[in-house]
Amino acid sequence: MAVQVSESDQIKQFKEFLGTYNKVTENCFMDCVKDFTTRDVKPEESSCSESCLQKYLKMTQRISMRFQEYHIQQNEALAAKAGLLGPR
Prior knowledge:
By secondary structure, the chain is an all-alpha fold.
């Protein structure tokens, strides 16, 4: 049972991904890069950028998990209301 995604949906998803990527990149850059007197990235800037990205990824994963939990609870509540599930 493969799910086919239309080309327009793929383009929309890619645009959303690029928007998110650009936002994260800009936020982490603005927070972490402070010295423009050299071409080299300083170690503290590099570690700050890595931490910023890790924090974003963990936050996104946590929100996704909570969103899934919420949907499961909502579906169970609707099923129970419709009499499809027995008491727990």
